[in-house]
Amino acid sequence: MTGATRSVPSGTALDDRGPLHVGVNLLWLVPGVVGGSEEYTVRALLALADRDDPGLRVTLFALRQFSEAHPEIAERFEVVSSGSEGHRRAERVARESTWLPRMVDQHGVDLVHHAGGVVPPGPMVARTPSLLTIHDLQPLVMPENFTSVKRRWLSAMLPRSVDRASLVATPSEPASASVVELLGVDPERVITVPHGVEAAPEVGTDRLEAVRDRYRLSPRTILYPAIPYRHKDHATLVAAFSRLAGSRDDLTLVLAGGPGPVDAELAALIGRSGFGSRVRRTGRVPWPDLEALYALATVVAVPSRFEGFGAPALEAMAAGRPLVAADATALPWVVGDGGRLVAPGDVEGWADALASIIDHPAEARRLGAAGKERSRAFTWARTAEALSSGYRLAAAMSEDGSA
């Protein structure tokens, strides 16, 4: 695992000036709507604050409700509100192209971090260095998962954005490689800023029992925390569960996650499985409940066919739970030897892998310990270090003309 792959050259003007003033563009971040990229961005910013780097000053440009949704961020950064709630994409884009450049000028920002995957058009691009975070390239790889309007917008904006940016960051080495391959970006202009994870706390018996009762869990559970998008491939897991459930009366499948675009299809699939009464769809759960669900899980499954990183896999390993994940995109890079990998969509393979853990406690303990050890390679402190280095590198590249 690596962070920023290039170092900031010594002897640049950055060495002699005051703190590098970074403005983070969060106008794309509608709280509770954008999914895992919100968690990643917020946690990375908190880790950056914990780093307390005297060479950096960070200002956030965000939607009106951001500070209310994330008071822990507002307490530690200057947050400049756009006055908009950003529910309409056209309005967000307009503010990124007009309001944001004015704010960047007024606040004396040296570098803009566009954390949401695109660099907006407008005059700011030509005069302000930038770091662009691309969480994944699913719009180019799986365009069928997007509306025609969003597909056309992102297909046009992603190539333009990487051309405008001084430096591009992704959350995993496979995602970085895909940016190089699919968008033709010079590898010297791409860095990896991975997710981190905190060591899972001990969950008390009272909370475990309360969560078990709240979600009506049986003694053995398969947990999959994911919003129902098509690429998350709940279908393979439901089919594999159906093969296991008939001979294991104490087994429950727990699907945790808020509403998604294939909810109706998933409900129909569960209804046809013959074991719908043993599938728990929890909806979006608060983090304390999710911690308990991880702790209670016999095995965690992540059958997703596409991930820029795969945070649930890392969370499962940090909790010491045995993990089965799809052998696809970034998941093998994250999981390493900390879990079992199965070909995406292979129902028989998934059923066999899950059974080998559910029916063999010793193997479950071995995998859980291996996952916990693997998770120690990913810390938010390392995320902050890579991000801080990326800011300096982007600014230095712009100064020496290499961007």
Note down, in words, how this protein is organized.
By secondary structure, this protein is of the alpha/beta class. It folds into 2 domains: 13-196 and 379-400, Glycogen Phosphorylase B (Rossmann fold, 3-Layer(aba) Sandwich), CATH 3.40.50; 205-375, 3-Layer(aba) Sandwich (Rossmann fold). Helices cover 45% and strands 15% of the residues. It has 18 helices and 13 strands. The chain has a 7-stranded parallel β-sheet, with helices on both faces. A 6-stranded parallel β-sheet has the order 10-9-8-11-12-13, with helices on both faces. Helix 11 (234-245) packs across helix 16 and helix 14 (311-318) crosses helix 17 (361-375). The chain is elongated and about 65 Å long.
Task: Write a concise keyword list for the protein shown above.
single chain; about 400 residues; alpha/beta; Rossmann fold; seven-stranded parallel sheet; six-stranded parallel sheet; about 15% strand; elongated
Short description:
The chain is of the alpha/beta class and 403 residues long. It has helices at residues 36-51, 66-69, 71-74, 89-97, 99-106, 123-127, 138-141, 148-164, 173-183, 205-214, 234-245, 263-272, 287-296, 311-318, 331-335, 347-358, 361-375, 380-400, and strands spanning 20-26, 56-62, 78-81, 111-114, 130-133, 167-170, 190-192, 220-225, 251-256, 279-283, 299-302, 323-326, 340-342. The protein is built from 18 helices and 13 strands.
